[in-house]
Write a structure and sequence with these properties.
alpha/beta; 14% strand; flat
Length: 567
Amino acid sequence: MSDVLFLILRALRAPLIVLIIVYAISVAGLALIPGVDAAGNRAPMSIFHAFYVMSYTATTIGFGELPYPFTDTQRLWVTFTIYLSVIGWAYTLGSVIALVNNATFRALLARGHFMWRVRGIAEPFYVLCGYGESGSRLARALDRLGHRLVILEQRQERVALIAIKNYATPPLALAADARLADVLGDCGIASPHCIGLIALAGDDDINQAIAIGARVLNPSIRIVAQAKSHVAKVNLESFGGVDVINPFETFAANLGFALRNPEVLQAEEWLTASPGTPCPSPVRIPPGPWVLVGFGRFGGAIADVLDREGIEWKAFDPRIDNAAERRLLHGDYTENVLHDAGIDTAAVLVAGADVDAVNLGATTLARRIKPDIFVVIRQNSVQDRALVDAARADLKFEQSDLMVHESLQVLRTPMLGRFIAQQRAAGSAVAAATIERVRRACGEGSPEIWTFACDVLQPGPFTAFFQRGGEPFRISHLATDPTDPLVRMPVAALMLERAGKAQLLPADDTELRPGDQILFVGDDVSRRLQSRYLTEPGTVTWVCSGTEPARGLVFRWLEQRRRARAA
């Protein structure tokens, strides 16, 4: 706010000086000109009365002639001062209007108001840097999950769009460069309520600067950054403490899993989708050679995966100039080049150019030659979504959709990312068992995902492990409805972490220990009911033993006497 005050004083310095001079001249003249009282005696006006008269005269209020009727000389002077003060006030008001319309002043005022509102947030929130297609979709997804958002975006027109979007809790937004440390500080990066930052700018250098700055300012928060180039990804990973998502490499890796273990990819897509999304069908990619249309970062990432899988491929691009690599063809996107690339015998076409019209044209030409070819298409612009969907490709790469899935996987439940990594290593059998367990417990819609921590600092787990005898505390107890021990909630345990080791798909009768973490899936009602096992010792005792413990002072005393007599 000091910058705002400085700008106000600098812009209004001259108008204020003019007003002071106008009032000084007017008051002095009115005080020096002699007046006459009701009896005709000389009655000079005091400085106070002169200032009072000028105050209501210059502002056009006009209370009359005080304290006595004016002489003609006084009236002539007041007439002069009226025109003089009107000129002074017109100059001042014009300067105020110019200041209000000044872009710098309005930006400083908006930033000050933004800082004041950020400081008033008293609940966990995320900082989102970049409000393009990926950023806007992630913001809506986080808002649906009940998270507060603070958004930084350089382009003012994008910030203006946030106000007209239908958010459950409107985000706080500022048009500023998130690479600057003071901007990150203003958005609350050091606040104890800030739980994470997501850098989704369109440029890798900007995302690197944002992620590194946020990591330095607050090492305790979770940071997710987009990096489209391999060099940027390596730089951020070497810095440490940043979850880096390369959309091209991630999609290519998913294609690799679809080739080896399609059930693994099916389970991952379902668990990371929005709640209620139906389970997708497994992707079955036919064996055979591949043809890649376009060979930029996207095509290169897919080619690396195909090399690791031992699959034959050819690519063509007008920008290719590498005579040493026979699989790379220099040519435009025509039917002749498709034949040269081997489209007649290919099993898969990857339309991965950075222009949607080229991808749609290549898809049409390829199907004209080979109608049953498996098509993977890349969508570059959100405006072309209807056209790309109309192409009915077998797989579609949409960067914003992939970034939302991967970011939510990291932000919502970090344990889910570890589960997916373990599941990938375990193979198709575990993935198929995961899908079956989730379907049996939760139905066909994508479930909510959360972590239950056996923290003995909480009253419930402390009672379960140290203050209760009888049957051990098990996963089946956490799946029991705390309002009715005979009813099982629609939940399923996917992974148990204990002492740094993970156990996939633990059985319901698995005995729990202090410090265990369990990854659960289910609906939101079950998640809220299960949280009672953390805070309510009586609920733990009731579910485990079938009897509700004495709660009041008198009933606890009676219970102690009953146990003493029984002993």
